[in-house]
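Q: Hi! First time doing this. I have a protein sequence and I read that you can turn it into a structure. Is that right? Here it is:
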Amino acid sequence: MRTRGVGKTTCARILAKTINCENLQPDGEACDQCNSCRTFNDGASFNIHELDAASNNSVDDIRTLVDQVRFAPQAGKYKIYIIDEVHMLSSSAFNAFLKTLEEPPSYAIFILATTEKHKILPTILSRCQIFDFRRITIQDTVDHLQTIVTKEHLSAEPDALHLIAQKTDGCMRDSSVRSTRSSASPAGNSLIKIPSSTSISSTTTTSSGSWKAC
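A: Yes, that's right. Below is the predicted 3D structure, encoded as structure tokens:
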């Protein structure tokens, strides 16, 4: 799917953590207490591997990953491989990966994240269960930004949060960054607001997170 900043990689990490949790909760959430959860939280899990295909997209990179897959996990049930921006893999890399994806070991799980699903070879897509992430709605974005504002002990005008949600087009990552930049004013104020002389309909955000009239 094309939408960026909506939590694809974050969800992949949460899923990976939950899969290996030794004491799943009744609601399906990870317990956060077992050894697997603690090592994940500490960034020390040997069962969860991430590959950024944007910068590691060669045949050699995939062959290194395939070599790792051959070894069963020392602890836990599964080894999870998260490949981010998987559409960036070269055709040769995809072909080198195909055999392992066709017949993976019982303990290996692959999670592929991409913003360009149409660039992935059909032979790869046909072997995947696909989940399309949609843009986050404006109201959901506003609600999440308000949660951040509350936790960070900031203040924010409702119209300002609504404007940020509009301008970031469903990308929660951009919304969070812009709200943080907007609260860091040179005057030391921790208020996210729109200048009084500017209306929502005539306002845009700059790359630095400040406001200016169109």
